[in-house]
């Protein structure tokens, strides 16, 4: 994925997120090669055109919540996640430890180890 633009890498990663799993914006930016560019990853998703078949709803914030309420899509996104089996608590938060997905082909595989 090194030859792709940041936007292309973000969209490729989003397309790989399996149903019933989520990624955070920060995680998406990290895996797309720009650690700390969570907001920019969000801008890429915000610019998606209607009719694109990417599972944009599987990308959430680092607190395990949807960030699309201000855009008018929060309830829609929560509904799509619930329909795929992602459990959200009363505050709209999912358990990232359970639902967060990491691609297997990441260097080292799986979630990064925190020191």
UniProtKB/TrEMBL annotation:
Keyword DNA damage recorded: yes
UniProt keyword Ligase present: no
Record-level Gene Ontology MF annotations: methyltransferase activity
Keyword terms: DNA damage, Methyltransferase, Transferase
Domain Methylated-DNA-[protein]-cysteine S-methyltransferase DNA binding: 6-86
Transmembrane segments: none
InterPro entries according to UniProt: ATL_DNA_repair, MethylDNA_cys_MeTrfase_DNA-bd, MethylDNA_cys_MeTrfase_DNAb, WH-like_DNA-bd_sf
GO biological process terms, semicolon-separated: DNA repair; methylation
Pfam families assigned: DNA_binding_1 (PF01035)
Name of the protein this chain belongs to: Methylated-DNA-protein-cysteine methyltransferase related protein
Natural source organism: Deinococcus reticulitermitis
């Amino acid at each position: 994925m090194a030859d792709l633009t940041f936007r292309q890498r973000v969209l490729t990663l989003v397309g790989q997120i399996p149903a019933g799993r989520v990624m955070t914006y920060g995680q998406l930016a990290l895996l797309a090669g720009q650690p700390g560019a969570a907001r920019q990853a969000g801008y890429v998703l915000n610019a998606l055109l209607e009719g694109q078949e990417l599972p944009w709803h599987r990308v959430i914030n680092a607190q395990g919540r949807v960030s699309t309420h201000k855009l008018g899509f929060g309830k829609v996104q929560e509904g799509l996640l619930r329909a795929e089996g992602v459990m959200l608590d009363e505050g709209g938060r999912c358990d990232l430890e359970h639902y967060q997905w990491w691609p297997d082909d990441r260097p080292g595989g799986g979630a990064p180890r925190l020191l």
